[in-house]
């Protein structure tokens, strides 16, 4: 198994991409801390994959620290972090977005990475190195209109990734980002700005050369590769998992 002996923390792991990552990590031999603000959902996933469930808000420093500490307490260390928890507002004219929505999307998508970096890096370094992965978005590489401020959060995530990769290389901590194209998750309607129907999906599918949305398995496969030892020379990468959208 590709992640045998690894200890991983995955945020936003009660559903969507995060659940897919947690499940595939466990299937590949990792011990997984399933972290989510929805603790009941986290407990469901953790119970099914043999992991531990940890609740908390990724925009709060104390909650992030508790996730890291809980992972170490449960499994004895930390080798892999996946910053997957994210949020968006409904696709709309950018000047119509409220200040509250702006603050929330930056807190969840940007501040959370800062907080996780501060809490997780000492544990990764203590293990002799590790993998720090952020689930970013093609929105940070080739932004769509109507999601300007969300796009900015993913641009920030991408720059964080590239800068931290250089800074943490001396500690053998690799830092990478996975950039999915739109997928079938609980946020799909918000991304599209309309109801998620086959008809409304068509205009988005038309921009993806391989002709389909991303799936949790697509994202999980990329995250497994970035966590395993066979990618030990890969750092600072913004990996599009997008069916060719950014080609």
Structural summary, described in words:
This protein is α/β, with parallel strands linked by helices and 247 residues long. It has one domain (7-236): Rossmann fold. The protein has helices at residues 16-27, 39-49, 61-75, 99-126, 148-168, 188-192, 198-205, 216-227; strands at 7-11, 31-36, 52-55, 80-83, 130-135, 173-180, 238-241. A seven-stranded parallel beta sheet has the order 3-2-1-4-5-6-7, with helices on both faces. Helix 1 packs parallel to helix 2 (39-49). The model has no long low-confidence stretch (mean pLDDT 95).
Give a quick precis of the structure.
The chain is α/β, with parallel strands linked by helices and 247 residues long.
Task: Throw out a few tags for this protein.
45% helix; 247 residues; 7 strands; 8 helices; seven-stranded parallel sheet; alpha/beta; globular; Rossmann fold
